[in-house]
Specification:
Blueprint lengths: L7 H13 L4 H20 L6 H15 L6 E2 L2 E2 L6 H14 L6 H26 L2 H12 L2 H6 L6 H20 L3 H22 L2 H17 L3 H6 L2 H22 L2 H16 L11 H9 L7 H10 L4 H19 L12 H14 L5 H29 L4 H23 L5 H20 L8 H11 L15 E3 L4 H6 L9 H7 L5 E5 L4 H10 L3 E14 L4 E12 L8
Parallel strand pairs: 3-4
Antiparallel strand pairs: 1-2, 4-6, 5-6
Helix pairs in contact: 2-5, 2-6, 2-20, 3-4, 4-5, 5-6, 5-8, 6-17, 8-9, 8-10, 9-10, 9-12, 10-16, 15-17, 15-18, 16-17, 18-19, 19-20, 23-24
Keywords: Cell membrane, Glycosyltransferase, Membrane, Transferase, Transmembrane, Transmembrane helix
GO molecular function, one term: 4-amino-4-deoxy-L-arabinose transferase activity
InterPro entries: ArnT-like_N, LipidA_mod_glycosyltrf_83
Amino acid sequence: MSEPAPQPNSHKALILLDLLCQSWRPYALIAALLLACALPGFISLQPLDRDESRFVQATTQMFESGDFIRISFQDEPRNKKPIGIHWLQAATAGPLDGAETRTIQAFRLPSLLGGLLAALCVFQIGVRLFDRRVGLIAAIAIGGGLLLSTEAGIAKTDAALAGFTALAYLGMAGLRSAPGQANVRWASWALWGGLGMAALIKGPIGPLLIILSAVMLIAWERDLSWVRRAMHWPAILLAATIVLPWYIAIWHATNGQFFIDAVGQDLAPKLAGQSENKAVPPGAHLLLSPVIFWPGSVLIPLGFWMAWHGRREAGIRFLLAWLIPGWIMFEAAPAKLAHYTLPVHGALLLLGAAGLVKGAWQTAWVRWSAIGILSLGTLVMTLVPILLAQDVAPDAKGRAIQTSAIIAIVGLAGLGLVIRRHHLAAVGLIAAAVVTSVMIKGVFVPALPQLDVSARVSTALVREGLHPRLSPGQPGPLVGAGYQEPSLIFLTRSDSALSSVATATAAARLGSGVVVNQSDNMDAQLSEALKARGLAISWRGEPITGLNYSKGDPVSLRIGQVIAADADAKPQ
């Protein structure tokens, strides 16, 4: 495909791009951008409900029990995802934080590193398939994109899965593009090492994506030579060494129940549309793309252009085999969350970056489609603070308008540079991504007390000397009802009894802290139940109000302490 004659502005942009592509600069730029977009939430956001707090609480209990094979949340087995993310969290939280401090950032570090691995692997795949220009553009788009930079600041499986899946695809790309013996060995290690870690983090998802891509490539090209090069037995043994010991150990530790529950209670309901996430029609992920890729969503139409015009090129075929089967699989599944498609985002952005370098921007429909998608994403991101304040914190409306105004200014500036085809358009979009991340994840959301209920409860317990882990003497387990979010259990103690009035009553001890939701009339119910045991509640401080955003319900929580009902009463 011939290169179009460069325009003056595009010539300046290429000079800047080539300057950034030299030596170590791409790696520094990619890492700096990802950190700038991820760290605001990584540092500032409280433990998030419900998945993040469930993961970190389960990891914390491994330290407490000394059992690093079985996964539990309080007394219940958590037979959903494999052990990988818990081991990675233990590897960072243990040395950096200790088992009892429970600083959420130490548990988030594997996600941050996984996001960085994903962006760097996208860069290297671009280098191997095309050149450093394409690799850097795509890596900047995914590293500064809304989804990866957000997931990189949350202690769950998704950023780590994206990183190791990208590593496996890098190995596959190396096997196809460089058949020399040394390169084959390196690529085989990357492929099988990435596959092993992906399988240990989220079970079949990562390996299934690779298998689907391989099947599509083999059917399309009728070429098995790269598959034969992948059969490097030491690398295959590495994958087996990563995966099999724990899978065998958990089978013996649970008599196979882990696999029954993981399939029957986690995977199967999602495939049948019967999970806690309601079934959504196909196409939802595509409709979300202008937002979750933003501002890299500007590359989406260029990716479609490149997919068609470059379909006979080996590199484009590889990217299509990476993108299409996985995207169809995620769209076909009834349960859909925005982060599900993250492991295939690199393929679409690499297609878009290749299209940009090949001159797709000169095509009118591509250019205006890209501008339209970028405009839509910018509008949505501008409205986020206002809509959040309207639903959650009406008293923060003024601050929300200010935040939205700042996002609008940087977003429109970047959009204007794109429309004008200015050579600094990419710089404008990077600035928009960083400023938006800082303003929303680092400033606005952490300043909303309505969303910080668990941390405020924990602080109040410390202030009243009732915190079961941090207060002097460590009072008895926290008990209560009406509010049992995993974040509060993580911030207090693993034996907190918050599931029901009956459970709280049975666990209550003299001196125990109490937290109940007045909105459900739980304070009166718990007081009455404790009375039968000769116990009462001494209420402390003012109610803590906010939003249980996991359920979308307002809460009004009272803090208290279990005391004897009278001077002569003795608890049973």
